[in-house]
Amino acid sequence: MKNPGYGNLKGWLVARKISQSEVAKLLGTTPNYVNKKLNGTGPDFRMSEARKLHASFGVPMAYFFEVNVPFEERAEA
């Protein structure tokens, strides 16, 4: 299951007029690959990528983490 927070991340980038090309340049990849990540058809963002986006653009780290994990998938404490 892909991270549903990526829709929020995508909206956050659009609201701040940060293009997928800018994100791709920062991450050293292509805009197409960034688009796949944001739309859930590619791999999830790596922690190193999340840190770069946070440091460079101020992207909230919460957008990179699954918030609503189904009960049966949660790790036991």
UniProtKB/TrEMBL annotation:
It comes from Lacticaseibacillus paracasei. Residues 9-64 form the HTH cro/C1-type domain. This is Helix-turn-helix domain protein. One of its GO terms (molecular function) is DNA binding. It comes from the Bacteria.
